[in-house]
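ARCHIVE CARD
SHELF: 3
SLOT: left
DATA:
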Amino acid sequence: MTIRRLDSILADRIAAGEVVERPSAAVKELVENALDAGASRIDVTIEGGGQKLIRVIDDGAGMDAADLAWCVERHATSKIPDGDLTNIDTLGFRGEALPSIASVARLEILTRARGAEHGWGLRVEFGEVGALAPAALSQGARVEVRDLFAAVPARLKFLKSPRAEALAVADAVKRLAMAHPQVRFSLGGEGLSGFDHPACAPGVEGLLARLTQVLGRDFRDNALAVDSEREGVRLWGYAGLPTWHRANALAQYVFVNGRPVRDRQIAGAIRAAYRDYLAADRHPSLALFLESPPAMVDVNVHPAKAEVRFADPGLIRGLVIGSLRQSLAGALHRATPSHAPAALRKFAGLPPARSNSGLLAPSARHWDWRDSPAAPDSPGFDETPKGFDDAAPMADARAHEAAPSPDDLAAPLGAARAQIHETYILAQTRDGLVLVDQHAAHERLVYERLKRARAEQGVARQALLSPLVVDFDEADAARLVEAGDLLASLGLVVESFGPGAVAAHEAPAGMKLSAIEPLLRDLADSLAEDGQAAPLEKRLDHVLATMACHHSVRAGRRLAPEEMNALLREMERTPGAGQCNHGRPTYVELKLADIEKLFGRR
């Protein structure tokens, strides 16, 4: 076939698919332009999920007539003044956003530069540029996009429902609002509840205030501050408590130099940092901000600027894991406060013993204590009991034999007062009570002790009776051999056994022989992807977690008051004691004021 050059409008429409694949992408590009213009207020309005109308108004620097004419030309930008792609400190830089949008929609721009006598307006109809005209406008810009993708039916056909597209727009604006707390953001339109987030103060307090505006008070109540710096790269923000987790990673917000990104490497580092605290199918909620010299980040790897590449991936991974683990360790026994309201709601949902008239409530009139799941199953209780003298006590109240120590009462987890069902420790604090799962709590304590011992004394390993030889692709085998020192520090000793083969001579103590070959293959895949021996570390942690489970205080074991108080004090000193190794909470705290409300005293 004969090769021909596409006309400019058709070429622009094809290229627009890389930059503006849906209305939320157009909103993102327009808001980023407003932020680069120094706006202190940005108002976004949409109709029809953004397909009918997108309106973005800002009070930024604005443009004069010459700049307005240039802004709809492809690859015309003011954001790379010296042409250095290694020194990009703005959100946009390619000069593709406005031309791409203009080629697939009706675009109108009204703008007025700072100090100008009047503004200017420009219209572009599906790539056809109109003439400049004077316009009345205050300082800043007003950009309207109508009938998005009307000239590209194929793209229009693949849009989701207006409601789904509106939610995607809201998510894009929220992410940019989180990254720029000092800017006021508002969003309104069809299919949206809308919001208006006032500007916040600079610094960490202002950031937390903005995150609270966007993510709600629950995030603030469960947030841990993160702030670390290494080799000129700073990571700061807030990470959620491990006991406040989600079913997916959608509540993880990562920003690189103010740019919202979705980076697989950072996501993997987040998983590694929380590995000791969460079940495999649960994900933390967090908002992290990475600040680095522009030369260390390549933002020119994705048309929509949604991905980045780092010059030193190992530095970034180590910084993320180290910072998060440090914050999680600093939280010690702290757990999410949302467990207490949940517990109170369950209490409040029980049928009342009596109605307001003093008679039994309808649901309790025919209630039989023998139908209760908590009814004793000891012989002699098949009939109406005459007494409970022969039954085992439901709670061990030996802690009441002596008055609680003032020091224990003042401690965060209080003083042990009873053991319930030989499984739960009931502790009294100055302003409430704490209910502790003794097995889950002790399991975490033993696990942390085993980890400290491994870090201080190294990984115990055992020699194999005969080397285990595993065949690999030559590149995978070479990676395993090159990582020999790292693997040896984790208890796995390997060496080359000819082209494409690796021999394992020693393995971590307690690891089954049948698990070594699958582990080596997982390690080869992990080393090929990011140069890390994560599978081996994960297996070692799993072995320690299993040992901790088997060596922990079991449910059903009766504890003396001294043992219960010792367990509480060690929980207060141990990182991650608010949840067991499986991500479940180890205790629930109820404030006295909430209990009084439950009984109608307040």
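SLOT: right
DATA:
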Amino acid sequence: MSAIPISYPITPQGVDETVLQPSKAFKQEVTKVLFAIFFFMIVYLLLMVAALLLAFLCGFGGVMLVTYMPKFFTLMIGIGLVGLGVMVIFFLLKFLFKKNKVDRSHLIEIKEHDQPALFSFIRTLTQETASDFPKKIYISSEVNASVFYDSSFWSMFLPIRKNLQIGLGLVNSVNLSEFKAILAHEFGHFSQRSMKLGSYVYNVNQIIYNLLYDNDNYGQTLERWANISGYFAFFANITIRIVIAIQWILQKVYAVVNKSYMALSRQMEFHADAVSAYVSGSDHLITSLRRLEVADNAYNRLFEYYDLWHKQNLKPDNLYPHHIDLMNQFAREQAIPVVNGLPQVNSNSFARFNKARLVIKDQWASHPSTEDREAHLNKLNIRTETVTDSAWALFRNAEALQKQVTEKIYSRVNFENPPQALDLHSFRKLYATEVEKYQLNHKYKGFFNYRNISVVNLKSFGESLSDAKSLEDILNDQALDLPYIIEGMKTDIHHLDLIQQGVMPVKNFEFNGNRYKKTDAAFLSSQLNAELADAENQLKMIDAKIISFFIDAAAKNGQSARLIERYSELFQTAESAEADLKKYSEIMEIINPIFYNNLPFTEIHIIMAKVKNNEIVIKERLKNLMNESTIPQYLSDQDKKTLEDYLSKNLDYFREPNFNNDALMLFNQAMHIYQSVVSERSFTIKKNLLEWQLSFVE
């Protein structure tokens, strides 16, 4: 990328400095957090006093026992008592020695002599935001920017310089004005004295988290102590019970502190937004917030395609041209304008897809919603001109840097043979093939993209149900909105049910712009279910009209009987796929806890027994599928080999105390193929039918 003149985005002039003052809500949350921290300190000190008293009594009792009854078993009991007291105190103090080190393995540090323009840009920005220049600057691959540091207990008392991480996916997605606004937001977290409380609360949270969940080393120490002697094992078990009781108390405290911290964190985000607006303008952060949602989605989709093409021994030479190309292709698909090479996303860009009417303020969220942040920034109303140059203008040898990061991502990826480079031309060609494979004809306007066609009584088509002259007459705006309205209703009903059950702990929520209490959830759910039934009937009628329209057209070509036959085949396949996907979801829901939770052996055995029971049905179903004549076309040779391997073995996934990782990997591969093949077959039959019936009206 050739060098271009760099224009530093102007800083707004004459802005009232009161925008930087903490808001009333911020001060209220600070007060709550201070009380929460004070509460934690009182509880912790009481626990420590109790632990010291226990240690004293255990030590005194052990010494007395050995003094008055000097035998081997009393000596072991005495040592065990002392060990019990020491281990409980150690549990409460172990956080003093814990350092929370941020993983840097995916990062690349850059120096000023390599990137002088970028460092100059950041130095000017830190001066404007009255924050310290970063200790180190790193680049990563993703759509993100953050300030981070290694923390420990002592971080609450010692000054620590922060590091800056810049994701090249973010650089790929913004102009210079937006880049300045984003970095100003990050520096804004540390530019005001009032914001430093956030770091303090963060470290308190880390201490409680360490006591509750970060216990691997402590558990290993207890285990080694218990293995020395049966006497010590007895006292180790008692220690565990005491520690569990302490953790139960701390869990209650953690809920109080963490809830307060999250509320403060949301206010800190608003404050950092105000700092950003003060030095760069409100509008640039707004436009970047919206676009970064698209950019992040495109980044994740990109790697889904890369995973797919990995089987073809392909590796991207530079992921960033692919990323921006995917962003812009997505924008064109959604009729979003692309200006200066970037999608111009706003709050209305995806309004059609989100028809949910229920609004719940997540009290556990660390960030406000994009809508709330945008409203706050618009209220500040600080405007500046936009520097439309790409943020890449700040980087020297940008293309080489992009390739270096791409290579780092793939440094741990194994290929069967030396991989072929996937350049932009090849990417576009492969992407177009994938899109064509899974895209329905644009004449249906996306009406069938994300759902099955409603099952209708095909015997009722003796008379025409549709007087439409064209497909356009049926697929009006009202009809096209209906599938999204239905999905919105289903989402709202699900959340209302969770509120009723207490799974979603909220006292108040908004629906249709009105405020409701938890007790209103049942009534609203009932009302929505009635609306949903009516909307689904409307959708079924529209589907019936479309089918009738094409059957009438097919009749003129002598093909109506064949079209009805193909619809019957489609309905049967869709019903079969729905049953298969339900089996897949059930078994994955059963097994997933072993991947994400540290479960006791008894619970793991129960889970694996359930997996085995469900697996019997799925294996039988897979055998039947592989014998069907239409299935092999959806399976690669590797997929067939994987399924044959899976079906030929009675896999033992867990043999206490270890998991069989190879067996679990084969299970996951087989389940993914199972889910993929039934979905692809159902979709392909639908796509082919919808494409074929268009020939009768063209």
